[in-house]
Design goal:
Elements lengths: L1 H9 L2 H27 L20 H20 L4 H28 L4
Helix pairs in contact: 2-3, 3-4
């Protein structure tokens, strides 16, 4: 535990924020993934919580994906030696790209028809 406390006190505030976001959202992401594979449905994305946009950009799935990729992207950038300001921008763009890709995939999946 002393090693963790020493490491935690040495890292920057932004890196602490990334870690605080990364851990719970990664757990939520994994739970969502397991739920999707085992039940075949999304327990976190019911129609009641989605904004009624045909593209469905703001869903729980996308928000969890955004914060997961945002945090891990920021951690990776800082660990690679990239400045904090640039790492924040890269993390933000990575999270938005994740949301966009997931939205596009599920949009086209919803348009698929079976004859």
């Amino acid at each position: 535990m002393e090693d963790f406390n020493a490491w935690w006190s040495e890292i920057s505030l932004l890196l602490k924020i990334y870690w605080i976001i990364a851990v719970p959202f990664t757990i939520l992401f994994l739970l969502q993934l397991i739920s999707s594979f085992t039940t075949g449905e999304d327990t976190l994305d019911s129609d009641a919580v989605q904004l009624k946009i045909s593209f469905r950009f703001f869903t729980w799935r996308n928000i969890i994906g955004f914060f997961t990729i945002f945090a891990w992207g920021g951690i990776a950038c800082i660990d690679s030696g990239i400045r904090e300001g640039v790492s924040f921008i890269v993390a933000l763009v990575s999270g938005l790209m994740m949301m966009t890709i997931m939205s596009v995939l599920f949009y086209f999946i919803s348009k698929m028809n079976v004859d």
